Amino acid sequence: xxxxATRPRATLAAVAERAGVSRSTASLAFSGAGPVAAExxxxxxxxxxxxxxxxxDPVARSLRSGRTGxxxxxxxxxxxxxxxxxxxxxxxxxxxxxxxxxxxSILLLTDPAGPDANAASxxxxxxMDAVVLVGCSTRLDASVALLRQRRIPIVAIEAAPxxxxxxxxxxxxxxxxxxxxxxxxxxxxxVAVVTLPLGADHAAGxxxxxxxxxxxxxxxxxxxxxxxxVYTRLRGWMAPASSTAxxxxxxxxxxxxxERRPTAVIAQSDLLxxxxxxAAEELGVSVPExxxxxxxxxxxxxxYGGVELTxxxxxxxxxxxxxxxxxxxxxxxEEPQPTLLRCTLRSGATSGPAVHR
Length: 357
Hints:
Layout: H1 12-19, H2 23-31, H3 38-51, H4 58-65, E1 70-75, H5 79-82, H6 88-101, E2 105-110, E3 130-134, H7 141-149, E4 154-157, E5 166-170, H8 172-185, E6 191-195, E7 205-206, H9 211-214, H10 218-228, E8 236-238, H11 244-255, E9 264-267, H12 270-283, E10 292-297, E11 310-313, H13 316-331, E12 339-341, E13 344-346
Parallel strand pairs: 1-2, 1-3, 3-4, 4-5, 5-12, 6-8, 6-9, 9-10, 10-11
Antiparallel strand pairs: 7-8, 11-13
Helix pairs in contact: 1-2, 1-3, 6-13, 8-10, 11-12
């Protein structure tokens, strides 16, 4: 007896013959692309099961259509780091919602402009119909040029505007200014910032005066510019990752000296904010009585003690959906307009009036 591993692959033509229908009818029964009577569809599926036919050959279908049915999602961070960011999960969910409904699959790739810049890039050979760039560096020129050579439509999420790239933007600068203004209205004049990774090397340490020249992370730089729209100077700490551990380390560094302790900390993610709060608790600094802490993202905090953060809530799910819709419109030959998504300030239990020493 021939086992499944050695049995020749069943064909659609064989299924159609067994079911007593035309090949085109059998194809429609599988694809759902046209009207097929329920009884006919059941006959085709029964014939396919009997012959061990799992559906049309994806390679042959790709050759016929000229498309792979794949959208590449290029993530700048190492994947293990990317999936620790709670904002990436709903963003990818939104992207998958839109693309999956249209029959497309997602292929996750890493960006050569990111931490593994010396590694070989898969974007020059990966089979895909379009690309979504996530976590965008300001050093994407080479990657974008390569994708353009392949004539692949490009969508970028939170990137610096680039010619020929559909922009799905978040109002990072305006949102950060909104949060900074909230603290300013509460009387805070001495404010420190804990940033997301600013450079490709993910260096940690005090925020340098030349941060703008060195920054390669567009969202992190825009959020710092938003703070400068309210406050005339910046001081703070560059975190190597968006994590509570990085926020904790930053918090210890910023709050250790009582003589230089700020009255508020603006963290560029909620995870960083939660880490700062943990450091404050360890140092005996009460929040918000002695220190206000502002986050960014709007994550659920049940797993972190249920802290009711004052934060800037971003529409992560809609960000992914907007990117997915943009991909589909580009593949249809349209020229969609850029999308700008807004954040909202959610006042919680971690901000209060400044107590001046």
